[in-house]
Amino acid sequence: MAELSKIVDELSTLSVLEAAELVKMLEEKWGVSAAAPMAMAMPGAAAAAAEPVEEKTEFDVVIKDAGAKKIDVIKVIRQLTSLGLGEAKTLAETAGGKVLTGVGKDAATEAKKKLEEAGASVELA
User: Fold this and answer.
1) Tens digit of pLDDT for each residue in 48-69?
2) Surface-to-core class of residue 109, CB atoms within 10 Å of its CB (0-12 exposed, 13-18 middle, 19+ buried)
3) CATH architecture classification, 59-124
4) Which candidate, 4, 23, 35, 116, has a CA 20 to 30 Å from the CA of 55?
């Protein structure tokens, strides 16, 4: 034990640069890394990183392409919204047009299903 205390006392006199050089030398000699024990000493940081990401609750239903059956897509857009015929037609012809904005996951999924059945290419954003 006395020898370990003597080693600790001697190490305490090292400057920061000398201590860093000592770490490098020991890593090379023993083939280890001093970084691994440091990661194990900080379990709180790893636990914080593993927290679940908050699930998205509001979605936009966006038309990518109306497809070949544009009339059917326009009908579905009118069912889903309160748009008139002209507005629904313009929306169907506009790539990136938002049919619904800020709706729940179930409503967005149902609207996407109906629009895709009508022939449109749709994504949820």
Assistant:
1) 555 666 778 888 899 998 888 8
2) middle
3) 2-Layer Sandwich (3.30)
4) 116
